[in-house]
Amino acid sequence: MNRTTLSLIAAGSALAAVTAFAAFDGPSASGAAAPEAAANLPVQRTSLLCPAPSISDIAGTSYTSFTPVTQGAASGGKAQLQAAGENSADGTGNSQTGKGSKGSKGGKKTADQPVLTPKAPGTPATGDTSGADAPALIGTADGKFAPGWTVQETTQVAAGTGRGLQGVNCAAADTDFWFPGASTATGRTDYVHLTNPDDSAAVVDIELYGKDGAIKSPLGENQTIPPHASKPILLSTLTDAQQADLTVHVSVRSGRVGASVQALDDKTGGDWLAAAADPAGSLVLPGIPKDATDVRLIAFTPGGDDADLKIRLASPGGLITPAGNETLHVKSGMTTTADLGAVTRGEAGSLVLTPTDQSVPVVAALRVVRGKGDKQETAYIPATAPVGTRATSADNSAKGTTLALSAPTATATVKVTASAGSEGGTATTKTFTIKSGTTEDVPVPVPSGLQGTYALTVETVSGGPVYASRTLSATESGIPGFTIQTLPNDRGMVAVPRTTQDLSVLQK
């Protein structure tokens, strides 16, 4: 059977279908030497999607944009964030405003005005908005702004449902998302936010899985997200079932979307639940706060086989097994939970899940509570990918930032760089060695003469895979507000094949 191998032009087009782009070396004459190993080059274009931040009229939201300095990046380029159109939270679409159509209200910025103007690589830029009418944002960056571009959305809610600190990294569009840890229980108000960055409509299915398996939800099928629009969908409108722990699966039939879940509780605050890492046999959930008062593991296996997992905590002293929670049996298609209590007991920790026997793909997340009584606050830690070459965290403060690094399988050396401050300050770097099987809350470097907020970049120098998360804390009305973001690779570099062969010839 004859088939045509992709030409370099076609390969570039295929690469343009994802959110990061890079240039290929030009083709050489036919019959030349075999292709060389792929080269890692800075991406040339990337996109990010930020969900609408809050349903509260008393919420205040800050945005922080940061691009790390990347060797070999282009000299020109720009980055921008534009408001997405809106759709009603009940999924009807009746309140769609359209792209950029929200008008001025009370002197606030309109959707046509940028929330912030990104600065040159190496320096964060900040902006803010307030109230319940703040829109979702669609961002694009090219040239020197693209490699590792990161935008953090942080919201403070003083009172009411979801009060406390909520944070999320604006994420790239994709076609498949898993969210273990959502809920439709009494007292919870959970939304799945879907944002379409493209010129054509996206069609999305939302599937819900509870403790007894799949929940019938015809209203979750064929959700249409118009071009350049965002739709928050209240999960309780998709089913009458009240479930304390749900796994939400968002799959895209056509197009692509950004997706995240806003999990709000009447009593214990709330936060964003970012998508978990793709289903895998072994998972790492890094950076459980040392003062966590309650930790709940939520796991789900989407395949046809049950999963048996070994639960271990990577502590500063090594891997330990939580008493009474040595293993977890996850039935196929059913959301399974384990209450781990105050599992960290005053020390930094990361949860490590590995198969006891046969490896079965699993998705997982942690619901973490700090504080007691009426001063509780909640955050989420989804299973995440390792740092890899580099990960980036925006919106850090001199006293409110905790950086957790974990090396579950082999000792690793890590370089952490604090950028210049958004309003002033000089970048600084520290290097840390994380021993095999441990987690450390490392002393975070802070820019000298810091003014404003700053960014952190984490780079793996040598050794095994490193997993990381950043906890941002701020006390509001005596309540210990906090939010946790995992730090997977920032997609600043892309592997580009080098070739000296003409790939446009026909091959058998």
What's the β-strand tally?
40
Helical segment count: 1
Low-confidence stretches: 1-32, 88-111
Overall spatial form: globular
Largest sheet at a glance?
A: 5 strands, mixed
Description:
Strand 9 (150-157) and strand 10 (164-169) form a beta hairpin. The chain is mostly beta strands and 508 residues long. Residues 1-32 and 88-111 have low confidence and may be disordered. The protein is built from one helix and 40 strands. The strands form eleven sheets. It has a five-stranded mixed β-sheet, with no helix packed on it. Strands 11, 13, 14, 15 and 17 form a five-stranded antiparallel β-sheet that branches. Strands 20, 22, 23, 24 and 26 form a five-stranded antiparallel β-sheet that branches. Helix content is 2%, strand content 48%.
Element layout with pairings:
Blueprint: E1 3-4, H1 8-15, E2 39-42, E3 45-50, E4 59-66, E5 79-83, E6 85-86, E7 125-130, E8 137-142, E9 150-157, E10 164-169, E11 176-182, E12 188-196, E13 202-210, E14 213-215, E15 223-225, E16 229-234, E17 246-254, E18 258-265, E19 269-273, E20 283-288, E21 294-300, E22 307-315, E23 318-320, E24 327-330, E25 336-341, E26 349-355, E27 363-370, E28 377-382, E29 390-396, E30 401-407, E31 412-418, E32 424-426, E33 428-434, E34 438-442, E35 448-451, E36 454-463, E37 467-476, E38 479-486, E39 493-496, E40 506-507
Parallel strand pairs: 6-16
Antiparallel strand pairs: 1-40, 2-39, 3-8, 4-7, 4-9, 5-8, 9-10, 11-17, 12-16, 12-18, 13-14, 13-15, 13-17, 18-19, 20-26, 21-25, 21-27, 22-23, 22-24, 22-26, 27-28, 29-36, 30-34, 30-37, 31-33, 31-36, 32-35, 37-38
